[in-house]
Write a structure and sequence with these properties.
- With 375 residues, the chain is α+β, with helices and mostly antiparallel strands.
- It has 13 helices and 13 strands.
- An eight-stranded antiparallel β-sheet has the order 2-1-13-12-11-10-9-8, sandwiched between helices. It has a three-stranded antiparallel β-sheet with strand order 3-7-4. A two-stranded antiparallel ribbon has the order 5-6.
- The two termini are 39 Å apart.
- 45% of the residues are buried.
Length: 375
Amino acid sequence: MKLFIKTTLCSLLLCVFSTSAQFQQTELLQGLDLQFRVQLNKAKVPGGAYAVVRGNQIIATGSYGVRAMGKPDKIDADTVFRLASVSKTFTGGISVLAAQQGKVNLDLPLINYVPEFKLKTAAATRQIKVDQVLSQSTGLMPHAYENMLEDKQTPEQILPKFRELDPGCKPGTCYSYQNIVFALLDQVLNRGTGQSYEELLPERIFKPLQMSTASVGYAPFLATENKAMPHKRGGKGWRPVKIDPNFYWVNPAAGVNASVNDMAKYLIAMLGHKPGVFSAEALAQLQQPMVKLRGKPRWPVWQQFKQVSSWYGRGWRVIQYDENKLFYHGGVVDGFRPYIAYSPEQDIGLVLLTNAEADITGDLAKWFWQQVLST
């Protein structure tokens, strides 16, 4: 009888805890949906979509608004957006997978794979390793020659300009965000594996994860019927603009396209629930903080923790808070603003996509992680 009572009591307690967790999750998702719609409406953003994953399940998706101002087509969970710098997380992933296969050595100098890359001196050139490109720690001036890309000059035209530069600090010791140099990882992968970036991502990541709408590059985005169009500020609101191809010339830095449904599948893999695609060993390398950023994260959610620091890893940004980590990346490119993040400790991830450059993804992410991580 005592055993029966004890077992029944334990069952009741488990039921209470389970019900409480379900209630908290429901509150979280309802709150996110409300915040999402209120924020987009307040900023008059044409449209957006979000997804939340927990464990190996997509627990919520939501969408708001239209693909393009002045047109009736609604955004849904399969509408494709440009991912801007969130693309770098895929580059990190495919680089780690190639390294695990022995096809690419991340410890070799970049010049071993890209002999066209030269700095002011040969010694400086040989200092920069592939891993330092991947982790944004080349020591070169931030956003080097990116203005030329924005002026429609191709990477081939820009690359000789690097002969005027030397690292401002020892490579591997300081954070220095790059797009043009980061895009050279395409050549690293191509020369190491014999396949282009545009071939590797579908074969090794998109297809195994059943990311059916994901693609790389300008032409595939244009060919997608269910796609969001970019918008920039005009007058008192937003106006649709043409899709500019220039940042598609640096695909590893900014050239991936996907829907929130696809990005949710990607997050499930990042949380460790697709070991056939990303093994625990691969994720450990991908999740390693590589270079520390100056200053501390400023969001209120981080103030409750004793030790907090910002890092850049292999294609991912990292917040180290006490013994835990949050991995994330945002971006902005010609009328799009994406955000992706996940917490291995909480086994939860979030993706936000909008078709305008309003910084509401930051506010929404701040609200979400405040609810999830508050103690």
